[in-house]
Specification:
This protein has three helices and seven strands; from the N terminus they run H-E-E-E-E-H-E-H-E-E. By secondary structure, it is of the alpha/beta class. The chain has a domain of 85 residues: 2-Layer Sandwich (Nucleotidyltransferase, domain 5). The strands form two sheets. It has a five-stranded mixed beta sheet, covered by helices on one side. A two-stranded parallel sheet has the order 1-7.
């Protein structure tokens, strides 16, 4: 009685088509995704070492480098800011205002906006800054 040798099954996996599919998916997702940018007001925030991340609030007053004032992405002038801010503060749960001001603005304008916010009876003023990047040299 002779034993026949068992035939070996070739179990190698060809991964070339798999790699092609991964690259095609990568290209598809890179081309179909879009980068989210914050729309609206161009402001260069001043840097501070003690800056902390703060969740975005409903009431944001922005002051651009050329002196324009925005209340939640809507351009306002200083005369109407008090009434509009007062109505937003009354409707808000958290009665604090974030002030985002360009680092090159006149300090007097920032003080006027803070004074108007206090007149609108806000409970807290938050000055928005960016975290200062320190260069570590060894």
């Amino acid at each position: 009685m002779e034993f026949e040798e068992r035939k070996k099954v070739n179990t190698q996996l060809n991964i070339a088509p798999l790699i092609d599919m991964v690259f095609l998916l990568l290209i598809f997702f890179m081309l179909s995704s879009h980068f989210v940018t914050q729309p609206g007001i161009k402001i260069t925030l001043p840097a501070a070492i003690t800056a902390k991340l703060h969740p975005e609030e409903d009431i944001i007053v922005s002051i651009t480098g050329d002196g324009h004032v925005y209340l939640n992405e809507e351009k306002v002038n200083l005369h109407s800011l008090l009434n509009q801010l007062r109505s937003k503060v009354e409707a808000a749960k958290k009665k604090s205002v974030i002030i985002k001001a360009d680092e090159k603005i006149d300090l007097g304008l920032a003080v006027k906006v803070m004074d108007i916010a206090k007149q609108a009876e806000v409970e807290g003023l938050i000055i928005s800054t960016k975290i200062e990047q320190k260069d570590v040299k060894q």
